[in-house]
Amino acid sequence: MERWRKMLQNSLTTAKELSERFDIPIEEIQDLENEFNIKITPYYLSLIKEKGDPIYKQVIPDKSELVDTDLFEDPLGEDKDSPVNNIVHRIRTAACF
């Protein structure tokens, strides 16, 4: 088997695995499994030195990410430049002198 496939096959992918690995209460992380896809390769897991370090924060879902902070829906005004969902199309022209 190719090395990358083996890494993916051995990835951490469930809330239960996260809970056991990082001593997170399962109740706290279970709901996040439905909102976020979890897949952390063994190599990337090895980069996490302790709970809460920068790599941990980058890959372990946190319930605060689901909190709606009542910010503007479109703070950059990109909706008007979007011909279809998830694409922003802008044409910039240089000023002629």
What would your notes on this structure say?
The chain is mainly alpha-helical and 97 residues long. 38% of the residues lie in helices and 0% in strands. The protein is extended, with a radius of gyration of 20 Å. It starts with a helix and ends in a 38-residue tail after the last helix.
Core attributes:
97 residues, mainly alpha
Distance between the termini: 61 Å
Shape: extended
Please tally the β strands and state the result.
0
The assigned structural class equals: mainly alpha
Q: Could you state the order of secondary-structure elements as H and E?
A: HHHHH
Weakly predicted, low-confidence segments: none
Query: Number of helix segments?
Result: 5
Describe what is shown at a glance:
This protein has five helices and no strands. The chain has helices at residues 3-9, 15-22, 26-35, 42-47, 54-59. The model has no long low-confidence stretch (mean pLDDT 85).
Secondary structure elements and their pairing?
Elements: H1 3-9, H2 15-22, H3 26-35, H4 42-47, H5 54-59
